[in-house]
Amino acid sequence: MPDFRLYNTLTRHIEPFAPADGTTVRMYTCGPTVYNPAHLGNFRTFLFEDLMRRTLALRGWRVHQVMNLTDVDDKIIKRAHEQGKSIVEVTGPVIAAFHADRVFLRIQAAEAYPRATDFIPQMIALVQRLIDRGVAYQAEDGSVYFAISKFPSYGRLSRLDTREIKSGARVIQDDYSKENAQDFALWKAAKQEDEAAGAAWDSPWGRGRPGWHLECSAMAMDLLGETLDLHCGAVDLIFPHHEDEIAQSEAATGKTFSHVWCHGAFLLTEGAKMAKRVGNVSTVQGLREERISSAAIRHFVFNTHYRKELNLSDEALEASRQAVRRIGDFADRLGSETTLTLGGTPELARAADVAVELAEAALFDDLNAPEALAALFDFIRAANAELDRRGGDRSAVERARAALTRIDSVLDIVPGREAPDDGLVAWVEERLAARKAARQARNFADADRIRAELVGRGVVIEDSSAGTTWKVV
RNA sequence: GGCGCCGUGGCCAAGUGGUAAGGCGGCAGACUGCAAAUCUGCUAUUCGUCGGUUCGAUUCCGACCGGCGCCUCCA
What we know:
The chain is 48% helix and 15% strand. By secondary structure, it is α/β, with parallel strands linked by helices. Strand 5 (136-138) and strand 6 (144-146) form a beta hairpin. It binds one RNA strand through helix 1, helix 7, strand 12, helix 10 and helix 13.
């Protein structure tokens, strides 16, 4: 069994990883708050989690991933209020857009996408459990808070246990009801707007709604059990969100909430964190309109290690677009009947084996996708050179195909080829026939004119001894 | 102020205590009628700066410079 290692935020070390039961990884990933379409920064995290689940699968484990959809929170209620809608009316279309973007980016579906509003009873039960254990209390304002003073290991994940608010920190809101400024809300007493937006539920503490941290704990434990193998998110969730999840979960169960915590780094634009409040966001929809392919976006994201900040730029995106073009050409070549007929060499088969071995080793070592990409490109160069030799061995070609398929089962960066419509095919074939005749007559002026005509409609041709192939770009 | 991350060729980006993967771009060559694709060669004596440890540091330690993030609800 190959090693599998992950960087655990809890210990700040790369350590061996395996699911507790030896077969299925139970993984919780913090999903979007659905008040606004997710931006590319959000999706960098979801792509990191996609890389995670695919790599776990490559390693041979089953994956049970849960990603929550936060469909009740301050911003959603505010938006509902502004638009005179209920929170459901606000979140419905945003959730649909999220999945559309997710599918476009080839992010595999998680096993479950629970919505916070569908788990209110479980959340209430969790709050009750915490009150019963004496670690939560209802304050004068009707809200229920978690008393961090009752949870000694609070701050272990974020290492901010001796926190003090100093200049430079965001100013804390006055909240007279809490016993301690650092206590966080489990259950928020309903306000007028909450009721109006359909964001209030009955509870033993009166009408109210769940706090943000509470929902993740309640849903994770309900769907995956009280101890998870893995919990993922972006670095900004380390504090307070994940810290608070640990506190309320472990205070309630007395068990470890998650063995391993993994956090992805930010996507930056113009040197600053991409965020709605900074106003420098790029959306998946926007990139689609610029005709940036999902393969190029995946390459761009996976070309940098998930724990390192990544700057979005046109230059980097263009480089990824070209890199992915090369991968696509190679995939086409490898997949063609002609290539199978011409066959490969023993060296081709060997290169395929080496590529798989190196890519797996890289991915299993804390998801080193950049190194896996390097292995893939080494393979592409070696394989192209070997294919030029027409070794005649079909099995070598099949082995190379299998290698590409295996590596791409994680990266999924072979660009898709949309099947051209029949009309275009007929036209291109007629033009190519005319060009062939012109070339045979050594009338290169006409031949080049036809080629320019094809390029004008986005058709690029490639002559080889085996004939002329074409593709739409 | 506290905690933490980062700084590698024109651009993007891996990496190791023993002398720098890969991609994009560029240059030259092969192939081609010309292209395209592909292949071959070249493109960092050097890894922010200055010290220290070491036989040896880009990799460990310290200082400094520069960039970024978190410090209560932001992926």
